[in-house]
Each structure stands twice: as C-alpha cells, then as structure tokens.
Amino acid sequence: MKKQRILLIIAGVMIMSIVLPAHATMPVPNLLPFGQLELDEEPAQTEEGSDGGEENVSDNGAETAQDVLQEDAIGVGVVLIADKTAEDYALAYERGKEKNWGYTNLGISDVSDNLNIRAIAAEDGRLVGKLPKDAACEVIDMDDTWAHIQSGNVDGYVSREYLLTGIPAKLRAEELATTVATVTTDSLKVRAEANTDSEVITLVPRGEELEVSAVEGDWVKVFLDDDEVYVSGEYVEVSAELGTAVTMSELLYGQGIADVRVDICQYAKEFLGNPYVWGGTSLTKGTDCSGFVMKVFQKYGVKLPRNSRAQANCGTTIKVSEAKPGDLIFYAKGKTINHVAIYIGNGQVIHASNPRTGIRISGVSYRSPFKAVRVLQD
Questions:
Q1: C-alpha angle with apex 372: 367 to 375, nearest 5 degrees?
Q2: Strands 127-132 and 136-142: what pairing?
Q3: pLDDT tens for residues 92-139?
Q4: Which of 120, 105, 117 is nearest to 154 (CA)?
C-alpha cells in the first residue's frame, strides 16, 4: 500500500512539472473595459485579396459599425477579453469615430416627423430649428431630460427622449446614410444620358449635393427631383451623408413683405420631411411638387391648377432675381416645365423633391430656374 502511495506521488509530481511550465508561458489576457471596441488580429481582406493593400471599408471609405464591433453583443454584463495593446484600442476608437460621418458624439432624431430644437433647455424655450426624422446632430452635452446639440446651422436643445445616441445611433446611421455627389465645378452640366452628346437638362452650381442612384463607369446617375439623370464623375465627389437640421430662426425679409407671404412660408415649413408621392396631394401622407404648392396656397384662398405647367401660366411672370417669399419658382427639363417650388427668401425654396428626400429646402439655384411667377398680388 505504501509503495502504491509513493508511485502516485511521483506520478503527480511528473504531471505538475509538465502542466505548470506550459501555463507559465501563456500570456495573461488584457480585460477590455465594457463598451470598448475590439479589433481583429489580422486586417480583413477585400475582394482584391490580401495583396490589394486595402482595408475592409464601406462605400464612404470608413469601416461600418458592424465591422468595428465585429457584430459582438455589446450590453449589460458583457466583458470582452483580448490581448490587444493600448494602441489597438485607440485605433478602434478612431475608426469608430471616423464612421460617425464626422461627428464625435453622433445623435439621430427618433421621431415620426420633426424634433423641435429650442434656444434653452425648457419646453417653453424659443423654437430655433427642427431636426427632421432620422437627421443627425453633434451631441455637445446631455442630461436625463435634455440634449444640447449642433446640426447644420442650428445650435440648441432637444428632448433627450427622442434622440438616439451611442451604438443605437451608429447602427441607425448605417441604414440612413445617403450617397450624394457634391459638385466640384462652377457649373455642372446635367444630361439625360451618360454621354457628352446627350441633351443638357440643366446646370447645377458648385457645392450642390445630388442624391446618387448608381455609378456607371465615368458617369454618375443622380436624382434631379423625381428624374434620374447623369453627371460626369470627373466633376463630382461621391460620399455618404446624413441629413441635418433646418433653421427655423424668425424670417427677416426686410421692409415691405406682406404678412401673408411670411405666413405661407412658415406654413409650408411645417411639412418638412414629409413624404413625396407622385400624384399625391396630402401634405402629411404624401404629395408631389405641384400638389404641395396647390395645397399650401389653398389654405390662403389661392386656387391653383393641379400640375406645374398649368401653374406656370397663372399670375404674373417675374424675373427670378425679383422673387419675394411666397412667389413660385419653376424648373424645366429642356424647355418643358416639370417642377415647381415656393420661394421662402434668403435664396432658398421649399419643395416636394423626390421619394428619397420628400419635402425639403434647397437653394433656389440647386438647378437652373426656368421661370418665376407671382400669384400673390400685394
């Protein structure tokens, strides 16, 4: 019996001498704090293969939130274990920040129409802007009730209840980002087909953003209101963008502007972000460009025809440079009028543009104006 115990002790010592050194050489993993991002050991390969020298990126040149997060569940009680260095963690943070489309602390409005932006953090604060449904903002600070944000040209406070932040905001942004082509030349020719022999429909100024439908070789197919047209890829910069807030500062038009003109512009702005529906006439459920104009003016006792070409024959034709808030601006494909908008002052129009953007505000020269008409006689 004693001999057996001695043999067991010897065997145990031999086993320990093998196991302990093996564990001693294993690296002790770092604990990645809750909520941090984790990187792969090896860079992800693209379709070009590992020799392509490219990282796994989205269409706008940055990794998707899912790429950065590796589709790991990030939630209460989750602790990620990794043997990455501090530099790796810093790189993960920078990549995640880059994916925020230029926002350090991204916020996304989570409302069915528009989120009010107020001058102070109070329900009776002066209204200074509106953050349309699914639009983005920079979150400067927030508490349990209010968030201080900046979006577009608007700085103010919104209800925290209706704002997505953190990972939920990133994931929503993945779904919302619109691919746009920003014009990089003074006067970009928009053509009906993807060739230089095709008809020039209109001209678009530098800095204007056009929603991209597809990229076809050297040409980019874009939406021009509810038409799909082409521009040369040489003169645009394609990127992914998120919508931003619209300023609602008091309209200061100067002397001699009738109250009804101001009221019409303010009333039209109430429907920003609402859907575009071809043939529709509902300001809330969906309308096209002429239906939008017809319904807005109907509230003020002005009866207009149903389509834009007929509306262009109403009232008095004026120069575009003479337009006052409440006048109508018409656009054409070639010489055929196919779109109408309401001038709201400060070089801007409001219009029902297309199914992707709905009712929006644009610069009056976002495409070449064809005609201006005054239907309000004051």
A1: 140
A2: unpaired
A3: 445 544 557 778 899 999 998 889 999 999 999 988 888 888 899 999
A4: 117
Report percent pLDDT > 90 for the chain.
Answer: 50
- The total domain count for the chain is 3
Is 284 a residue whose pLDDT tops 60? yes
The CATH number of residue 338's host domain is: 3.90.1720.10
Cβ contact 132:246 at 8 Å: yes
Do 80 and 116 sit in the same domain of this protein?
yes
**CA 21 to each of CA 8, 10, 136, 233: distance values in angstroms, whole numbers, following the listed order:** 21, 18, 55, 62
Q: Are residues 167 and 266 in the same domain?
A: no
Amino acid at 255: Q
How far apart CA 129 and CA 249 sit, in angstroms, is 7
Whole-prediction pTM value? Answer: 0.57
Instruction: Tell me the pairing of strands 369-374 and 209-216.
Output: unpaired
Give the pair of three-digit tokens for residue 42. 């090896």
Instruction: Inform me whether the pLDDT recorded for 42 exceeds 50.
Output: no
Q: Is residue 76 predicted with pLDDT exceeding 70?
A: no
pLDDT tens column, 153-197: 889 999 999 999 998 998 888 888 778 889 999 999 999 999 999
Tell me the Ramachandran region of residue 60: left when phi exceeds 0, alpha when psi lies from -120 to 50, beta otherwise: alpha
**Residue 334: predicted pLDDT:** 84
Count of beta carbons in the 10 Å neighbourhood of residue 260: 15
Nearest to 268 by CA among 253, 244, 248: 248
User: Does any domain span residue 365?
Assistant: yes
Catalytic residue positions, numbered: 289, 339, 351
The domain of 125 spans 69-176
State the SS3 of 127-138. EEEEEECCCEEE
